[in-house]
Write a structure and sequence with these properties.
Protein-export membrane protein SecG, elongated, membrane
C-alpha cells in the first residue's frame, strides 16, 4: 500500500517537474509559443537544479515501479 501511494505522489511530482521545463525548440513547445527564447548561452542554475531534481524523482518513480512489480509477483 505504501509503495502505491509513493508511486502516485512521484507520478504527480514528475508530471509537474516535466511541465516546468523550458522548451528546447523543435517540438510541440514551439507550436504553443515556446519558440520565443532568449539567445543566452548555457543553462541557468535554476534550470540545472530542475534537471537534477527531475532525474532523481524519475529514478525514484522507476524504483517504485520495480518494487511494486516484485511485490505483485511474489504475492501471486
Amino acid at each position: 500500500m505504501g509503495f502505491s501511494i509513493a508511486l502516485i505522489i512521484f507520478s504527480l511530482l514528475l508530471m509537474l517537474l516535466v511541465l516546468m521545463h523550458k522548451g528546447k525548440g523543435g517540438g510541440l513547445s514551439d507550436m504553443f509559443g515556446g519558440g520565443m527564447q532568449s539567445s543566452v548561452g548555457g543553462s541557468s542554475v535554476a534550470e540545472r537544479n530542475l534537471d537534477r531534481i527531475t532525474i532523481v524523482v524519475g529514478l525514484l518513480w522507476f524504483a517504485c515501479i520495480i518494487v511494486l512489480g516484485m511485490l505483485i509477483k511474489t504475492n501471486s
